[in-house]
Amino acid sequence: MFSRVLQISLVTRKKGCRAAVVKAKKTTIHDVAKAANVSIAAVSFALNGKGTLSQATREHIIATAEHIGYQADALARGLRRSRLGAIGIVNRSLDLLGEYFLPGIDAFDRTISTLSALALQRGLAPVVLPDLTGASIPAISLALDGYIIVSPQSGDPVLELLDNREIPYACIGFDPSQAGFRSWASEDDAESCLQVMEHFRRQGAQHPSLLRGESENSWNVSSEQAYRTWCAAQGVQPQVHVLDESSGVAGAVGLFDKLWPQNKTDAIYAMTARHAVGIVTAALDQGVDVPGELLVATGSDSEAARFSRPAISAIQLNPNEVCADALNLLIERMEEREPSGPVLRRAKFRPRSSSLRR
Amino acid sequence: MFSRVLQISLVTRKKGCRAAVVKAKKTTIHDVAKAANVSIAAVSFALNGKGTLSQATREHIIATAEHIGYQADALARGLRRSRLGAIGIVNRSLDLLGEYFLPGIDAFDRTISTLSALALQRGLAPVVLPDLTGASIPAISLALDGYIIVSPQSGDPVLELLDNREIPYACIGFDPSQAGFRSWASEDDAESCLQVMEHFRRQGAQHPSLLRGESENSWNVSSEQAYRTWCAAQGVQPQVHVLDESSGVAGAVGLFDKLWPQNKTDAIYAMTARHAVGIVTAALDQGVDVPGELLVATGSDSEAARFSRPAISAIQLNPNEVCADALNLLIERMEEREPSGPVLRRAKFRPRSSSLRR
DNA sequence: CACATTGTATAAAACGTTTTATGTCCTTAA
DNA sequence: TTAAGGACATAAAACGTTTTATACAATGTG
Question: Closest Cα of chain B to A357: distance in Å?
Fold first, then answer.
């Protein structure tokens, strides 16, 4: 553990040299053909294990290709095969917020890097992309082999675009307006909601309410749906508040100040962590005891929830699993196999002081 | 804020249909040419604002292209222009660790998503890639327009590869063995180290020591160098410990248990946050008072440092700025302009209870 | 001996662009 | 009337592959 390997290799490298002067010419399939004294078709066949070549020439070609350090050009190959070996990752929540720099929202970063790592594991290059319907997207945006769409919105135009072009995609979450679509993976948001409601009830809450985000993605929609169903079954008057996701802590503080005390809720399930933090903050400011007078829980665990005082009860999500599921579903579609989805993951509710009486 | 816009568009989409049956044929430049009754060359010229066309035909072509929804194929264009509009992002620390799933290390995720967002802002598609010298990398890996190499190692083979092929790149951090290279951006790690040492001295430390990671990147190398220089100037015996980065909290605990109490250091600057947490944990376990008997600080701020008890003093880095600097340097090289780097950012030292006596 | 079959290898078309090299028509100057 | 030039448009080459169609032996069959 203390050993220190100083592996400074003393390569002399042309560093920072003006690269323009002499363009290093690529070694192409023609070079290999010339070196091996065969046609370029033979080279292609040998390297791809196709065609009808004798074992001898096959080996000879592979050897010379290796010798002169040939590597097929990805673009030329992609053009011909119409397969590039790369997939796009589009996060519709970020698109909707119109803001790609979100300090403190580690969930988005996490999703991107997890999907990237998983894609690489399967030999696919991950390309992060913005709203595919945008005007000035990178040229490569629509040339990839498939797409993972994170948090599609209801009636999402990006999905429509991909459908029209018959480009394979899979979603994390689903488009609430497309009931028949099957290639999606998600946390079981409805079930999570029920866990929270049952917990609230056991802790003595009579009038639990829901605070969801504004955007019409499956996370918000399924949760609200589950909440309303639960209310109906329990004979409870449902009470749903909708707040712009980007309003953050301040937004929830504003909401609470407007609400309290006319409103007679005694438990709030705030889907986004920062809204939950805002509710707790505002409540304490107004002298409302949490959890004494008001129970609070949130739908996505995070540092913000864990380190708030009191610590906020939260649904602990499974980003790694859900990302892996989505990627499997995408690859399935890329290979034109029948969709095996949707795939749901059960999330675990972590009760903390914000919703534990006594 | 409470308004709820339900924008369910009632598009009927062919969802989940077997895409293979009828391959939707792409609209190509030939289709546009036919529709506008001109040659494909004319279309290309019109759409790229080149060639010698009358204003009239130019506009006519653009209109028809728009009308039939033409978009140039990125691969064909890339093949011809040898420019794809995409850049690669390679994190050598992750490569070295051989592990791309690092729970709790938000810094790496952060770098990836920040670089991605910045690249997109400039119209470049970001592609996350593993070690470019690897055997089974995605085909596209070496076909991009340029590369950002995060934390290159001393004598890094990836840089050598890029140099040989004369592919533009810029680094975050630098290769310690390549003094003349200029296209890199970084935190001013040497200066950060001095800030910590001066702080230790002011707090009464006599024998400050350094705990660095094993890998030979500029972060570790510059810090150690600065530390040794400072020690020499102060007439202090330098004391450097090297620990594998991936050993995490447990690694640092093990180190401390082996070290203490023969070792007579009274302040430790642990570069990585999890090592600092390990030191603090092990110290408290052995009844060593922090900061009473031992001062601790770390070189990269994080949740782990902030929420440790006592909270750990830390260097607060500027990932956004450094990423932006690196991207600027890369674009500079892609446009064959003279390198304007290196660019250093001064980080701020945040003293917390772990190193504040009284 | 004629004819089909098999085993190897190649020529050439195709992928969808960009760009260079030609061309045609029209105007102007000699 | 002819040459020279300008304005506009196109044909064709090129980018580097993959793949289809074709060629040419050598071998087997009736």
Answer: 25
